[in-house]
Amino acid sequence: MLIETRSHRLASPLAGSCATIWHRPWAATVAVLLQGAVLALILFYLVLPTLVILPISLGTANHIEFPPRQLTLHWYREYLSDPDWMAATWFSLKIALATSLAATVIGTLAAIALTRGDLPGKQALQALSLGPMVVPHVVFGVALYLIFAPLELTGNFVGFLLAHTVLAVPYVLITVTAALQRFDFTLELAALSCGASRTRSFLLIVLPNISPSVAVAAVFAFLSSFDEATVAFFISDTGGKTISRKMFEDIDFNLTPVIAAVSTLLAGVSLLLMAAIRATTRQH
Amino acid sequence: MASVLSRPNDQSFRRPGGSASRYSRPLSLALIAPLLLLLSIGFLYPIGLLIKLSLFTPELDLSSYRKIIEQPIYLSVMARTFKIALFVTIASFLLGYPVALAMASLKRRLAAAAAAAVFIALWSPVLVRSYAWIVLLQRNGVANNAMTELGMVEAPLKLIYNEGAVIVAMTHVLLPFMILPIFAALRSIPQEYVCAARTLGAGASTAFLRVTLPLSLPGVFAGCVMCFILALGFYITPALVGGPGTLIVATLIGQQATVLLDWPFAAALSTTLLIATLTMVLVFRQAFSISKGFASVD
């Protein structure tokens, strides 16, 4: 999904030979080495923050120690036995699962209506439905706080569900719309002309064809909620906070290696889920 | 975003079967109703209320906006926001272009290594990466320890809670949004063009400067627009790795709303940021349709 295969380029007859035809004098070799070094540095910069948290989460010292002298799972145990962290984790998981379900259902229905339906003002509807992607999250967070505070919806499951579903729905719309546009609708017409009802042809023909993309959309929605930090910062309170808000507070307040352990787990969840999506979508 | 916005939607008319391939209007309206309800309650209403609060208290009152323009401190926050967004965009371009080139390279292992690095950066949560930068750059952090041990510096340097740290950490978050559109543009250039240039006697750098680079400019344009717009509204990273001297619009909004509780002013700042963002999206909406493949990424 992230990177498609480059097969069409390899198919060109000259592609392979082009680079090797010309002889490189030594000056060019130095230039190539230099380019390689610059590239290696940039790639190092890209992966460094993700890679540095794992060794720190395994260190024994109370402060940040790199590289760690001894390895321990102490900070992971600390995380698992801390009621505050656990409460925040369950709260986040509940919100992310509910958001994933709500956003996938609402977004899939809307994607069907927008690609195949007869709707007035479709362009405007599409622009509106992608609005949450464009509006800065800090603006959305402040706006939500403004209406949630008087209703006592801050730190509330329903409030978070509403906020995160709004943010997740565009991802579902984009993913499912792309699948619907790839789908060959003559297949559905064949079912209809063979006597299937609209509902039956949808359930038996269309849905199985788009279901891999719907599943991908559900994972996107889950992650967009689970990793969301800006809006969660504004609409959390002492009664209910997500794991990201708890992390934000602790980073500002006391930098213990527990945060490194939580960070490693969060990054692990995101990267594994995305890698799984990438592996499955590549097969198709 | 791109594919949904730019695609003509009456295609089904031209498909065999005519109106049979379209759902009726009542059914379509029923299918999209939950989304419209969600967006009305959870999106349009709160944003509308925020804009109203910035203008009426309860009668028309523009003093919050006047405050932004008249007080030099807030003007300097605006200027710093644009400056940081600009620096981050330029840095992302300079660092991102070589990575995009490597990803589009025909050397499979190089391309795979670059793609893996971008993948790891893109999908690590922003909050986690901001924390990692603090760990790396703080007073007794990884970078300072390494430099003292190697004897490069005598006393630890102040590497964090300043503008430089904000730019380094924000560039890291936005780099993938620069790399992917450029990669998409580079990949769509037929390899034969470069070969033709080389056959006609151009050196590698001439072929790059006169063939590859110009043809990849739409991707560069898309990446720059995307980075700049995202950088303007960034909150988490500048809030964590920035300091008192690096207040930008987003962190100022947060401060006004959560610490100083000046709601009309926070609302006015939010509305200003919102208008700036929406204007740029509308002016540069072409950029979003250029960056195909981005839709599936973010």
Automatic annotation (TrEMBL), chain A:
Keywords, ordered alphabetically: Cell inner membrane, Cell membrane, Membrane, Transmembrane, Transmembrane helix, Transport
Subcellular location: Cell inner membrane; Cell membrane
Residue span, ABC transmembrane type-1 domain: 89-277
SUPFAM superfamilies, sorted: MetI-like
Transmembrane annotation, as ranges: 26-48, 95-115, 127-151, 157-180, 201-223, 255-277
Main localization category: membrane
InterPro entries in alphabetical order: MetI-like, MetI-like_sf
Family annotation (Pfam families): BPD_transp_1 (PF00528)
Keyword Transmembrane helix among UniProt keywords: yes
Topology of this chain in the membrane: Multi-pass membrane protein
Family the entry assigns: Belongs to the binding-protein-dependent transport system permease family.
Database matches in PANTHER family: INNER MEMBRANE ABC TRANSPORTER PERMEASE PROTEIN YDCV
Record's protein name: Mannopine transport system permease protein
